[in-house]
Specification:
It is a single chain. The chain has about 250 residues and is an alpha/beta fold. The protein has 2 domains: about 110 residues, Rossmann fold, CATH 3.40.50.10090; about 120 residues, 3-Layer(aba) Sandwich (Rossmann fold), CATH 3.40.50. The protein contains 12 helices and 12 strands. It has a 5-stranded parallel β-sheet, sandwiched between helices. Helix 11 links the parallel strand 11 and strand 12. Helix 3 packs parallel to helix 4 and helix 9 runs parallel beside helix 11. The radius of gyration is 19 Å and the shape is elongated. The two termini are about 15 Å apart.
């Protein structure tokens, strides 16, 4: 089977590996960043949560880091996620309604939700994210008259990659879930592997990440709604057709 790198936090790779295997790929986790919980932030998180009218979860990483520390018994606090992946992760902890965009999976899509028209002016919105998160939603919600508080509950730490794995498996594709991952990946690559890394077929779920990949040196990217079996099977067919020409 051809190899595909899964470039996302280690704890979130299991479902992707199963999907890739079902489509005929050998999926290998290869993350240049590890997630480190901010214990001090987590200790005060539930108090912040209970005083909010609405809570926005920026990613599955935010959910898996913070949700175990929260009491969700009060169903009056509105729960909002950036996309379906985060919604699914949060549903394991929260039994109440979870709102997310039907299309799009970024802060711009979240800002277009009707929920912001139903909350009273001055309502407190808590944004659960990692340190150094993007401020687009913070700024725009403040402009609309909301009180916005952030809970930065984890750090992104550099993680050294074992490039002997890359040499051994000779991947032909990768799935990557953040622009920061893209930069960290290319920053580590040994000179002799820079060209193979640039020429992988990169799948990602957002144009902003594709732009970061191009800026880092990648030459082939494909933006997909999600990494699913059909997408991977189509890519596998293309890879198999390319192989005779490469020989």
């Amino acid at each position: 089977m051809p190899a595909i790198l899964i470039i996302r936090p280690q704890s979130q790779t299991a479902a992707d590996i199963l999907t890739c295997t079902a489509a005929g790929w050998d999926a290998v986790p290869f993350s240049p960043i590890r997630i480190e919980p901010d214990e001090a932030a987590l200790k005060k998180l539930n108090r912040q949560f209970q005083t909010a009218s609405a809570v926005f979860w920026v990613s599955p990483t935010a959910v898996e880091t913070a949700a175990p520390h929260i009491d969700f018994s009060d169903g009056l606090i509105r729960q909002i996620t950036v996309g379906q992946g985060s919604r699914k992760a949060l549903s394991a902890f929260c039994p109440h309604e979870i709102i997310c965009p039907q299309e799009g999976n970024d802060s711009e899509a979240v800002l277009g939700l009707d929920i912001w028209n139903s909350l009273p002016r001055g309502a407190k919105v808590l944004i659960v994210r990692g340190h150094g998160g993007r401020d687009f939603l913070v700024q725009n919600l403040k402009r609309r008259g909301f009180e916005v508080e952030t809970a930065e509950v984890y750090f992104r730490r550099p993680q050294a990659l074992d490039w002997t794995i890359f040499k051994r498996i000779q991947p032909v594709a990768a799935y990557i879930t953040s622009a920061e991952m893209a930069g960290a990946l290319f920053a580590q690559v040994p000179p002799e592997l820079a060209q193979p890394l640039r020429t992988l077929l990169y799948f990602t779920h957002h144009p902003r990440i594709a732009d970061a990949l191009h800026a880092a040196g990648a030459v082939r990217t494909e933006v997909v709604v999600r990494l699913d079996v059909q997408t991977l099977k189509q890519a596998l067919h293309g890879v198999q057709n390319e192989q005779p020409r490469r020989k």
